[in-house]
């Protein structure tokens, strides 16, 4: 055998290696074709077959992307108009009226009690014992068989401390309702109750209308109620709200906190005009 022919001969080992190589190449091509077919089948319909297969295998938490969070939609909050919840004067865009400071009455409780009847026909009863005083006043209106009447009882201590103020209105004669209410409001003014014009108008509207109420009016608790035995008779009870001993940090630091008295006062919010913030007021 010639040397060239011997070099072209393959040994059995060479044949086995070539056969394995051909089988590997064929298997790789076949696997590529099968994978392409499977991928095509799973990818159709936007991957619906793939997702179904993953869910059947229970691997959706690992092989499927997490669902996007739901879109949050924030609706505009509906503004509830505050009308009806607050006095109308606090909702106006401007200052309705300037502050009015009234001087304290110079008359003593006994003088105020004596001045309850301007006509001088009725006489008030005033008693004072060890600093505590009481004023009683009764007046009839009209000449009806059952005349309308007004009864006032005021109690206090010292000259400027009013503890209770009670008015009993007997509106038994409708023709005298206005006169009885007017006399009741004048008695409130005589004893120097610190009420704003709006609070006085609040009383003037409800007393003749016989509208019962239980309200905190500035520094006072007021109750207007009908008597159970007679619907024509009403009681107006005015009690000053309790005061507390104390003061702010400035007065306490100065050593005056133990002698100061703080009165609770309900204050309404006032709207400022645009452009006035930060500017000194003349």
In brief:
By secondary structure, the chain is an alpha+beta fold. The chain has helices at 3-8, 12-57, 60-63, 109-114, 177-190, 197-209, 249-253; strands at residues 125-129, 132-141, 148-157, 161-170, 213-217, 220-226, 233-240, 244-245, 261-262. It has three domains: 17-62; 111-240, no CATH class; 245-271, no CATH class.
Report what the structure shows.
This protein is an alpha+beta fold. The chain has helices at 3-8, 12-57, 60-63, 109-114, 177-190, 197-209, 249-253, and strands at residues 125-129, 132-141, 148-157, 161-170, 213-217, 220-226, 233-240, 244-245, 261-262. The N and C termini lie far apart (130 Å). Mean pLDDT is 76; it is low at 246-254, 256-261, 263-270 and 276-282.
Number of domains: 3
Report mean pLDDT, rounded to a whole number.
76
Low-pLDDT runs of 5+ residues are 246-254, 256-261, 263-270, 276-282
Strand portion: 15-25%
Summary keywords:
282 residues; alpha+beta; 7-stranded antiparallel β-sheet; rod-shaped; transmembrane helix; Exopolysaccharide biosynthesis protein; transmembrane; membrane
């Amino acid at each position: 055998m010639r040397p060239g022919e011997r070099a072209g001969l393959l040994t059995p080992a060479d044949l086995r290696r070539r056969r394995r190589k051909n089988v590997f190449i064929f298997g790789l091509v076949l696997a590529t074709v099968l994978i392409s077919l499977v991928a095509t089948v799973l990818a159709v319909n936007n991957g619906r077959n793939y997702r179904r297969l993953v869910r059947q295998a229970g691997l959706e938490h690992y092989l499927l992307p997490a669902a996007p969070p739901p879109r949050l939609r924030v609706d505009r909050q509906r503004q509830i108009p505050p009308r009806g919840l607050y006095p109308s004067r606090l909702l106006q865009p401007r200052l309705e009226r300037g502050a009015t400071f009234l001087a304290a009455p110079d008359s003593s409780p006994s003088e105020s009690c004596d001045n309850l009847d301007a006509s001088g026909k009725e006489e008030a009863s005033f008693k004072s014992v060890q600093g505590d005083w009481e004023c009683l006043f009764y007046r009839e209106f009209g000449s009806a068989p059952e005349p309308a009447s007004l009864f006032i009882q005021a109690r206090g201590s010292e000259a400027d401390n009013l503890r209770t103020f009670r008015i009993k209105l007997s509106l038994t004669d409708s023709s005298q309702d206005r006169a009885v209410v007017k006399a009741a409001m004048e008695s409130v003014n005589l004893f120097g109750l610190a009420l704003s014009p709006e609070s006085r108008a609040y009383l003037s509207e409800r007393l003749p209308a016989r509208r019962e109420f239980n309200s905190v009016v500035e520094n006072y608790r007021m109750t207007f109620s009908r008597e159970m035995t007679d619907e024509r008779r009403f009681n107006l009870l005015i009690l000053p709200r309790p005061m507390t001993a104390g003061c702010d940090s400035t007065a306490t630091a100065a050593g005056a906190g133990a002698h100061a008295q703080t009165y609770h006062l309900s204050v309404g919010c006032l709207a400022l005009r645009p452009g006035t913030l930060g500017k000194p007021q003349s």
